[in-house]
Amino acid sequence: MPDSLSMWVTLAVTAWMVSLVPGYENTVSLPDIENEDFIKDCVRFHNKFRSEVYPRASDMLYMVRKISVIVEVSAKTWARNCQFKHNVELHSSYKLHPNFSFVGENIWAGSLSLFSVSSAIADWYDELQYYDFRTHKCTQVCGHYTQASICPVVWAASYKVGCAVQYCSSVYGTGISNGALYICNYGPGQYRSRPYTEGSTCSDCPNDDQCLDNLCSETFYVCFTGYYSIVYPDWPISVRNKNLSLFLTVSPPILILGILTTIWVKHRYPQLF
């Protein structure tokens, strides 16, 4: 009888410990490019950061999405490769979009539990701390923010954005396993000395544009795509899937505590084993 009880206790503890180990790919679902909340977040957070640049921009365009399905598909297709490098077709004339000679791209990679649209775009935008607008010099990495060969978060002329996130068992080029690869494509891409023109907000907007959230917005695009306010109740910026993040943080201590408790019970009440 003691041997039988000991076997059942061992099996129960083993099953319990196994249940605490999360299956990343199945536990964490990532949004598809047609997920409306995902789309809104991609647009909102880009426009939020574009509206907050300093020095102020006189010609920053409002980004839209729905008519940029082509760039979303491009981002999704490239993300499936699970490689932390830029699409080789970015600068091939009209290859990724019929209206743009080239498009820009930003890439983020990290653990599934840490991914969120807001945190990824914030990481790109935070590169501004290394960029001096007036001298046009960068002390560290700031290509995502401003002026590398890829299209940044705050290039004034880019007004279409399409993003995708992909689960990757391994993100090549990073050493990340069971991670998320988030890619945004922008159109049109632009090359010029600075990402935008400094000046009074919206003072250099194209004719007939309205000033919306400190950004130049063509009425047609807002009416056609819908207006995604940059101010909404979900602030502050936080990582995705708080419940999972908490679980991943708490489960190891619980596992250790369970093992220690089992050992203590076995020594305190040996008759049960």
TrEMBL record:
SMART domains linked to this entry: SCP
Keyword Secreted: no
InterPro entries referenced in this protein's UniProt entry, alphabetically: CAP_dom (IPR014044), CAP_sf (IPR035940), CRISP-related (IPR001283)
The entry's keywords: Membrane, Signal, Transmembrane, Transmembrane helix
Transmembrane regions: 244-265
Origin: domain of life: Eukaryota
Signal peptide residues on this chain, from the entry's feature table: 1-23
Annotated SCP domain residues: 37-194
Official protein name in the record: GLIP1 protein
Species per Swiss-Prot/TrEMBL record: Crocuta crocuta (Spotted hyena)
